Amino acid sequence: MRRFARLYHELDSSNATGDKVAALVSYFREAAPADAAWAVVFLTGRRPRRAVSATLLRSWAAEEAGVADWLFEECYHQVGDLAETITLLLPAEGSSDEDRPLSWWVEQRLLRLGELEIGAQRTTLLETWRALDARERFVWNKLITGGFRVGASARLVIRALAQASGIPEETIAHRLAGAWEPTEAWYRALVDPDAVNAGTSRPYPFFLAYQLDLPLADLGDPAEWLAEWKWDGIRAQVVRRGGDTWIWSRGEELLRGRFPELEEAASLLPDGTVLDGEILPWRDGAPLPFALLQRRITRKTVTAQVRQQCPVVLMSYDLLEHEGTDVRLRPLAERRDQLAALLGTGRGDGRLLLSAPVDGADWPAIEAERARARERSAEGLMLKRLSSPYGVGRRRGDWWKWKIDPYSVDAVLLYAQPGHGRRAGLFTDYTFGVWDGDHLVSFAKAYSGLTDEEIRRVDAFVRANTIERFGPVRAVEPRLVFELAFEGIQASPRHKSGIAVRFPRMARWRTDKPAEEADSIETLRSLLENVRRET
Amino acid sequence: MDLLTLTPAGLYCSQADFYVDPWQPVARAVVTHAHGDHLTPGSGAYLVARPGAELARARLPEGTSVDGAAYGERRSLNGVQLSLHPAGHILGSAQVRIEYRGEVWVVSGDYKLEPDRTCAPFETLRCHGFVTECTFGLPVYRWLPQTEVFDSINSWWRDNQARGRATLLLGYALGKAQRLLAGLDATIGPICTHGAMDRMTGLYREAGVPLPETIPVSSLPARHDWTRTIILAPPGAEATPWARRFGDAATGFASGWMQVRGNRRRQALDRGFALSDHVDWPGLLATIEATGATTVWATHGFTAPLVRFLTERGLEARAISTRYEGEREEPVES
Pairing state of beta strands A352-354 and A312-322? Predict the structure, then answer.
């Protein structure tokens, strides 16, 4: 645990990316694989469920520190972080000389906390605090309270793992995608240059597009670009390997059994094939409303009736693996040719469709097509450079999304308060934030756009995940992502974010997106820049 | 009648007709120390502790009447016994002791309990009424022994040298800067200072405080190699064009506020060192108890929690509203 606590301290002691990567590299070189596995879990923002309620944690810490509850709260208001408040208040550092490994603390203590009776939880926590020194205590408190942010993004962790193992970043990113168990064996395979991609079910990290924020002329010759419709569905990868099929959502959640018709269609694909596309509700050559699909994914079992009411297709955009080979670094044009050949032989079964190019001789012609997106129930256009590789994460330059409604961002729910009238007693009024570096900054409030069923689910989430109360307002765990649409945007010094939006509303609950993938303040700023440029 | 009253100009002793640390010009001011929030220019006459007289003169307009009293020297003013006693905050900082017909009040000014090589140590005074600062009046503020803090500052400097980066350490120009100088290990490398610190540091030396050699940044060429050097500068200087000459310097801030991680991260500092010239929570409680005071007035800082805490323990406590700031939370030009 001491080594991991030192890593945390080192990451926290410098703002220079180079220093952070160096600290990570030396940690991964030195740490036992079983510890390094858990380090990857926490550093990439995955974490076990919180096992102890924050209220109990506070009262035990206050008791151990010999501080009245009200004084603990005063301190918490000043410090603003529960783990840190506890660390600063606990009496003298622990006395144990024994340095147990991180994996022991996680597997024997942290993961078992949730199964214990309250009395035993209390004993475990007190014993732990008494055994650890200040740095270790802080890390431990961070592990139990959740918010493990240390200013090292997943990308830096991937870079460090690549440097420590001598394996390309793309391979590490791929091996980290999807579901895995942080065992010693898993970590050994992660950093083993000779390991065949062991998890046969594993998807590739999704490549994401930026909102177009520059003039079309800056993109150059339209002949070097692929334009296609931007559909409103569930972005997914279909993995066909070893005679089996897996469907993964953008949030890297396995959608097994949810779309049996797609699994059936994919069974006709050759082994060693991975498609990237969008699951769409579809009938007679046109998409059905997205809400229909949402209703379908909340069902546990997919009956014949459901399949009949809401038939789905995969609108295929890209080919990531072909004949067992990772083809992501080949040019898009080549991947698309292979994709067309693959689906063109009737193998698509009418369920795996090819996303058709939107043709236009020049940019004005393409822009005119975009204006017709609504007639096609599309959200706008995607513009992809034909020479581009399939990258990792969100990068500028090669892929752009160009929505009809330019004002839309994915934001994280931060605060909730009860509504009025018909909505009294339910948490229906929300405040949303976007990323600013490694923290979320609030920028908009919204009340409308959710169905009653969704409101009930958000309400239950708020009640179960409150981290702080300010009168009627609850601060919640930053986990839920919503697409906010709005009519206008302007600079506003009165807002913490420096930006005010007009008529914000919830366009959609992005259950497919983890909070880490919500938009950042830069997205809002570039929208603002666009408005300035256009006026 | 009360010995001390709070007026719009500051704490006032009507029996002897003087103010303690007034924030408006008055006829007679008794001043605890030379920081700007305690020493307001424009009064007719100032009384300060003698070791701090030159600092006060340097910060007041020329020709101002400044009288220095030795620590413990008693002055009699209309039946009131007035004396100044070490507060351990900065050079010449004082607590003001006021006695009249057997009733004793002490105004602490800013103070700390830890020994400091640049000033006389805090003296505990018995009193009936105690006016105390509580800049860091919450139990999360418990200072580590300063030797540990100085060890980590010195080893940070060494690490930066090893990485070929200059070390920029921020701290207030009066008091903190000189305490830092006294705690730095001058064998590690050269110590340079921002111009704002040189005058005060010179006055410390003239008062006989031993400090290591310092080189004014302005005396070195712009293309100087800074990678072995530690540069002391006031907070705020790191964001100015002045600091660009140090290239990719590691930046740290020595302040009690650095106890809390969020304060450091908000300012994008690499390192924060919780080193304060103010008393911490355990020291505050110990001092209040040692004075034997039954009445406590809390001035600047987290006054409400302290008042509640003391009231629950049977003391007569209240918060009084002053203009003192204690240690500022954000680095600002000073």
Answer: parallel
Inspect the interface and report whether the beta carbons of B139 and A13 lie closer than 8 Å.
Answer: no
**Which tokens belong to B119?**
């000033």
Spatial contact of B166 and B244, defined as CB atoms under 8 Å apart: no
Strand partners, B300: none
| pTM as predicted | 0.70
With tokens 């003296």, the residue in question is B123
What's the ipTM? 0.91
A410 is written with which tokens?
């994915």
Find the closest chain A residue to B266 by CA distance: A439
Tokens of A55: 């209220």
How many DSSP H helices and E strands does chain B contain?
A: 7, 19
Token pair of A420 as six digits: 């009025």
Q: How many CB atoms lie within 10 A of CB A227?
A: 22
d(CA A56, CA A117) in angstroms, rounded, equals 12
Which position has the token pair 């940044």? B217
Q: Which of B75, B76, B25, B14 is nearest to B50 (CA)?
A: B75
pLDDT in tens, A92-145: 776 677 889 999 999 999 999 988 999 999 999 999 999 998 899 999 998 888
Q: Break chain B into its structural domains and give their ranges.
A: 5-140+277-319, 146-273
Q: What is the pLDDT of residues B128-157, one digit of tens each?
A: 999 999 999 999 999 999 999 999 999 999
The residues of A annotated with a catalytic role in the active site are 230
Distance from CA of B83 to the nearest CA of A (A): 36
Q: What is the DSSP string of B32-82?
A: S--STTT--TT-SEEEEEGGGHHHHHHHS-TT-EEEEE-TT--EEETTEEE
Q: What is the Cα A499 distance to its own chain's centre?
A: 24
Instruction: List helix spans (H) across chain B.
Output: 53-59, 146-162, 176-183, 195-206, 261-266, 281-291, 303-312
Answer whether CATH 3.60.15.10 is correct for domain B5-140+277-319.
yes
Least Cα distance to A348 among A307, A312, A314 occurs for A314
Q: Class assignment of domain B146-273? A: alpha beta
- CB-nearest partner of A71 from B139, B262, B270: B139
The continuous run of DSSP H or E covering B47 comes out as strand B45-49
